[in-house]
Specification:
- The structure is a single chain.
- It contains 35 helices and 36 strands.
- It has about 1050 residues and is of the alpha+beta class.
- An 8-stranded antiparallel β-sheet has the order 15-14-20-11-12-19-16-17. A 7-stranded mixed β-sheet has the order 2-3-1-4-5-6-7, sandwiched between helices. Strands 26, 27, 29, 30, 31 and 32 form a 6-stranded mixed β-sheet that branches.
- Helix 11 runs antiparallel to helix 14 and helix 28 crosses helix 29.
- It is globular and about 110 Å long.
- One of its GO terms (biological process) is cytosolic ribosome assembly.
- It comes from Brassica carinata.
- It holds the Pfam family EFL1.
Length: about 1050
């Protein structure tokens, strides 16, 4: 592919809400430009891209699939993607391989929740979108709107979609302004002002040509340009000028033959789009469908546009079939959509030049560590090749695999020159695939990919500058075959150049989910894909026959490779847990496991719901909470190790919700920073939403957010805000660890080092390790000046000297105990304290679920060993005793401070007719849902209801809703947030009012929180306080026998 060939390629994905017509649209595009694989009469009926049995049965798309089309001199790779929220991972894989997107919106239903999600995904991946308004015929036939009412509805939908994109642009713009104002200079220069100019041009404009109006089912569609070209000669105007006037407040005056704005038009004058576009369409539909319609209108259309309609279709007695034949020849759908795609969507060469910050984030050397300059130069050369979409044979070959998908072996082409290569598969590949062949869904970003070529398979953790230490992240593999995808068919090719989407065979044993392929070792991996949701629905699975366990294990490995979003784990109890995005996704995974991969009978448990544990309060009054953390406060929990040498005191407080959410959303970044990746010699400058300053430091940005999140929502007056900010800044310098797993939403603060132990014991101070990583403190600033005195007086090793520095002693030599081994032992206990904190936050006291949004301060006072020195085996290893004591103290502190359960919530969008509102609300109330708003859709009788539904109550919700409303209501759910359940799980009536309402303590039924806790404890095999036998007396009859 030379440059001209690259300019003639388009990689397009179709994105939309479920049932908005993506696959039907793809059918018509395939029928017209697919090389004869689909007859135009079957388009819209067979759903060619939905070739799985489950997709045909459910009538929804469940996976992204590609097909190559030819339109004029252009080659188009069209990727159809699912619209159901359960399969949003497939949308991410399709968006990564594309350069442009066709965003479909139903003209009747309008913008829905998944429309927001796909627009955000297109924005994240820097795709150029075009808007397709589908199902225009429903405005005529079902809603029976007038042309003016239909125009009002269409313009509202276009404005709403533009508003969504404008929100993303505004978010980027404001972040760019903040980054410039936070720069060292703080001044906006001419250069930055030029970059800061806000693009006020609306994204989707019909007069610009990137919006088309279609009816995918009947195969017709048009853009404004089609009607502009038709009316240009009749009105004596230029087509370009007329195209700009056919949308918006532009009016045509027949008497003066002038196009005027709103001020020059009369009250009864209609917009030009209504007068010249919609009214002719309405007239054709009325003439064809109404028994008494004017047939002369139809004859006029056929004659005016020289339409060649077969006589058989002209004489068809079904008016719908005749109308479809007429409209599809008058306004062909494929011409309208593909001409817009070719004109307004970018080619790979143009697209990769501005997508490069997202695909391969820039790397910069920020420290003087040893870096091989030749490796860095070659890696930069590869990056420039990707940016230029270099397709020359001597350029490095870089390919991104977005997912692996399984196809039956019988569907793989076996003939031609590829037979020998396929028969030469290694034993491992053929053994692992068995009856299923795994293919890589990939896009070539640079160079030429050839069948039989050896490439390096690079994982997302690979760093070419680390050399030997990152060799486990790179493998070498041979590509056995390359195919161009044709939906369910494959066309073998010998080589493919940059800019194309292909399927690759031979990578099954090397890739699990996604990876980067490169012809050179010195290549940075392409950025990982971002998913809109996470797999939250978990079930435990086991074979019905224990002898089939090996087959199940093999099937799970194949399923994990075939599905980009599923997660397979082994729980602490030894169960195999399968995590999916939702019920539909889970059902498909179980079916694939039974029928394709494992082929054994499987037992599936009830869903395993994740919870979190916290304490009462919202954390808004941060100033009072900070005071409660002071060491002089009395509300602490004290535990002592079994040998009596160490006393543990724990304080706990609730973190503000904004701070907890920030820590929870940035767990991956915090893990990299705390693990040492943030201070590496190479800094990854990555921004998923494009920012003006590409050199913005993510660590510095997170640091500023941590400062603001702790203060923003807590103080009312400016004076309190200043005090709170000062106290919070001091506390941020004492962050010892995060938990669980060293990167969770819980904080461990090091105790205040100024405290002097009165009983001769030593306070284990810990080190602000996380604060140092985040840049809140410097190592040198935290070292007291008396460290030299200790080192001279006691000649300790450097590690023990640092222990003195952290133990907070004064210069008075009488405070220095004579046994220096005690200080060394205090240092060794620091890791035990952190480990105990991690154990406690990973399993809370209520039901062994992770803690959420808590801050701990742990004081450990270590005394000298006396009597227990001779018998250490009586109590076990001392570090283990400390770890256990810290864990128990943290859990006891939570129990003492009114614990609460936190549950995950779904955001639910429901659509229903007015007569089903009552049954729908009955279903919502049984599911503990909280309704947010209810509104009627403009221009229709449907109601849209937004609500929050707990994840634990969502299983079977869709089926119950369909049964309760006789199929009249539909619902779509997406994971929203974590929410604390206000009910006290240990509630016991105490006041007279409570006893009167709930009865005495013996007769109070468990509340919702207690039921959830007991269910989790019962599933985990923990003790549950409940009466197994309610009435132990012998059954007797009350009848009196005479």
């Amino acid at each position: 592919m030379d440059e001209s060939g690259g300019r003639n390629i388009r990689n397009i994905c179709i994105l939309a809400h479920v049932d908005h017509g993506k696959t039907t649209l793809a059918d018509h595009l395939i029928a017209s430009s697919g090389g004869g694989v689909l007859n135009h009469r079957l388009a819209g009926k067979v759903r060619y891209m939905d070739y799985l049995d489950e997709e045909q049965r459910r009538a929804i798309t469940m996976k992204s699939s590609s097909i190559s089309l030819r339109y004029k001199d252009y080659s188009l790779n069209l990727i159809d993607s699912p619209g159901h929220m359960d399969f949003c991972s497939e949308v991410s894989t399709a968006a990564r391989l594309s350069d442009g997107a066709l965003v479909l919106v139903d003209a009747v239903e309008g913008v829905h929740i998944q429309t927001h999600a796909v627009l955000r995904q297109a924005w994240i991946e820097k795709l150029t979108p075009c808007l397709v308004l589908n199902k225009i015929d429903r405005l005529i036939c079902e809603l029976r709107l007038s042309p003016m009412e239909a125009y009002t509805r269409l313009i509202r939908i276009v404005h709403e979609v533009n508003g969504i994109v404008s929100a993303y642009k505004s978010e980027k713009y404001l972040s760019d302004v903040d980054s410039i104002l936070a720069s060292p200079s703080g001044e906006i220069t001419d250069e930055s002002l030029e970059l800061l100019e806000d693009d006020e041009e609306v994204t989707f404009q019909p007069q610009k040509g990137n919006v088309v109006f279609v009816c995918a089912l009947d195969g017709w569609g048009f853009g404004v340009s089609e009607f502009a070209n038709f009316y240009a000669s009749r009105l004596g105007a230029k087509a370009d000028a007329l195209q700009k006037s056919l949308w918006g407040p532009r009016y045509y005056l027949p008497k003066t033959k002038m196009i005027v704005g709103k001020k020059g038009a009369g009250s009864k004058t209609k917009p030009m789009f209504v007068q010249f576009v919609l009214e002719p369409l309405w007239q054709v539909y009325e003439a064809a469908l109404d028994p008494g319609g004017d047939k002369a209108v139809l004859e006029k259309v056929i004659k005016s546009f020289n339409l060649s309609i077969p006589l058989r279709e002209l004489q068809n007695k079904d008016p719908k079939n005749f109308l479809q034949s007429l409209m599809s020849r008058w306004l062909p759908l494929s011409d309208a959509v593909l001409s817009m795609a070719v004109k307004h969507l970018p080619d790979p060469i143009a697209a990769q030049s501005y997508r490069i910050p997202r695909l391969v984030p820039e790397r910069k050397i920020i420290s003087g560590s040893d870096v091989d300059s030749s490796v860095l130069a070659e890696a930069e050369l590869v990056r420039k090749s990707i940016e230029a979409c270099d397709s020359s044979r001597d350029s490095p070959c870089v390919v991104f695999v977005s997912k692996m998908f399984a196809m039956p072996m019988k569907m793989i082409p076996q003939g031609g020159d590829h037979r020998e290569r396929m028969n030469g598969l290694n034993d491992e590949d053929s053994k692992s695939e068995s009856d299923e062949c795994f293919l890589a869904f990939a896009r070539i970003f640079s160079g030429v990919l050839r069948a039989g070529q050896r490439v390096f398979v690079i994982s997302s953790l690979y760093d070419p500058l680390k050399g030997e230490s990152s060799q486990k992240c790179i493998q070498e593999a041979e590509l056995h075959s390359i195919y161009l995808m044709m939906g369910q068919g494959l066309t073998p090719v010998n080589e493919v150049k940059a800019g194309n989407v292909v399927a690759i065979r031979g990578l099954g044993p090397y890739i699990s989910k996604s990876a980067t392929l490169s012809s050179t070792r010195n290549c940075w991996p392409l950025a990982s894909m971002e998913f809109q949701v996470s797999p939250t629905l978990r079930v435990a699975i086991e074979p019905s026959d224990p002898a089939d366990m090996s087959a199940l294990m093999k099937g799970l490995r194949l399923l994990n490779r075939a599905d980009p979003f599923v997660e397979i784990t082994v729980s602490a109890r030894g169960e195999h847990v399968l995590a999916a995005a939702g019920e539909v996704h889970l059902e498909r995974c179980i079916k694939d496991l039974k029928d394709r991969f494992a082929r054994v009978n499987i037992e599936v448990s009830s869903p395993l719901v994740s919870y979190r544990e916290t304490i009462e309060g919202d954390g808004s009054n941060l100033l009072e909470s900070l005071r409660s953390l002071s060491l002089n406060a009395s509300d602490y929990v004290e535990k002592r190790t079994p040998n009596g040498r160490c006393v543990i005191r724990v304080h706990v407080m609730k973190l503000p919700h904004s701070l907890t959410k920030l820590l929870d959303e940035n767990t991956d970044l915090l893990g990299d920073i705390i693990g040492g990746k943030g201070s590496h010699s190479i800094k990854i400058l990555e921004s998923q939403s494009p920012s003006l300053e590409e050199n913005a430091d993510p660590i510095e940005e997170l640091k500023n957010q941590l400062v603001e999140a702790g203060v923003s929502s807590s103080c009312e007056t400016e004076n309190d805000r200043k005090k709170c900010k000062a106290e919070w800044a001091k506390l941020l310098k004492r962050i010892w660890a995060l938990g669980p797993r060293e990167k969770g939403p819980n904080i461990l603060f090091a105790p205040d080092g100024k405290r002097i132990c009165e009983d001769g014991s030593i306070l284990v101070r810990g080190s602000p390790h996380v604060s140092q990583r985040l840049g809140f403190t410097e190592d040198s600033t935290e070292i007291p000046s008396d460290s030299a005195l200790y080192s001279e007086a006691l000649t300790l090793e450097s590690s023990i000297v640092s222990g003195f520095q952290r133990l907070g002693f004064t210069e008075d030599s009488t405070e220095i105990p004579s046994d220096s081994a005690l200080y060394s032992e205090a240092l060794t206990l620091e890791s035990s304290i952190v480990s105990g904190f991690q154990l406690a936050t990973a399993s809370g006291p209520l039901c062994d679920e992770p803690m959420w949004g808590l801050a701990f301060t742990i004081e450990s006072h270590l005394a000298e060993d006396s009597e227990t020195e001779k018998q250490p085996e009586n109590f076990g290893i001392f570090t283990g005793q400390v770890m256990t004591a810290v864990k128990d103290a943290c859990r006891a502190a939570v129990l003492q401070t009114n614990p609460r359960i936190v549950e995950a919530m779904y955001f639910c969008e429901l659509n229903t007719a007015p007569e089903y509102l009552g049954p729908m609300y009955a279903v919502l109330s049984r599911r503990r849902a909280r309704v947010l708003k209810e509104e009627m859709q403009e221009g229709s009788s449907l109601f849209t209801v937004h609500a929050y539904v707990p994840v634990s109550e969502s299983f079977g919700f869709a089926d119950e809703l369909r049964k309760g409303t006789s199929g009249g209501a539909t619902a779509l759910m997406v994971l929203s947030h974590w929410e604390m359940l206000e009910e006290d799980p240990f509630f016991v009536p105490k006041t007279e009012e409570e006893i009167e309402e709930f009865g005495d303590g013996a007769s109070v039924l468990p509340n919702t929180a207690r039921k959830l806790i007991n269910a989790v404890r019962r599933r985990k095999g923990l003790h549950v306080e409940e009466k197994v036998v309610q009435h132990a007396t012998k059954q007797r009859t009350l009848a009196r026998k005479v």
